[in-house]
Amino acid sequence: MLPSLFISHGSPMLALNKTPAHAFLRELGKRLSPKAVIVVSAHWESLSLKVSTSAKPETIHDFGGFPQALFECQYPAPGEPELAERLAELLDAERVERGFDHGAWVPLSLMFPDAKVPVVSLSLPVRWSNQELVALGERLSALRGEGMLIIGSGSLTHNLHELMPQDSPMPAWVDTFANWVSERLIANEREALLNWEHAPNARENHPTPEHFLPLLVAMGAGGEASQLHHSVEHGVLAMDVYQFA
After folding, report:
1. Backbone phi, then psi, for 219, in 5-degree steps?
2. Residues in the chain, pLDDT under 50
């Protein structure tokens, strides 16, 4: 049975920069052989739940100000319309055609660079409560036993207004929040995580919540949490990866 994963995707430059997180995701993919991936990305926000039924999702370059090499990146992984239709029925989700935003294609291009594993994108319904997002994960959890890899792609910390040079150390207000989340996950203190907005320095690390919320979906889809990776980029982007086995 595959785990569910929460992946901190950080900057789109993760696709090109040989950082510790980049190297870790390349190795992580070698240990996994899913039949398909179901990904919930912080960069597909919606009011109601949606599922992409696209058979050939395009690579969306939903960013600006980066080197041309990043815009030339393509991730031609196939969609899986039959799985998408099944998810639409299971979750009462709206069917749409949509490509891969960078929250999906950047980490997946490192994990599965041959782009042969089918990928279905689910939207992030940002007006849902924390409890509803965990429940969404719970409804997906049975698919893990069928070889489906469920990924929540966001960022453990995500305050772009405070970005520092790439190799800057993590300031205390970022470290405090990251440690709080890690401790609660490892101790399986889900009630505390359902109220994560009250954690120390939560607002400073997440001026808006969308990059934290995929963690709740991944948590709901799995069981016991373990931290697979921790590093920091630009001082304020904790690149943590968690597995829910």
Report:
1. -65, -45
2. none
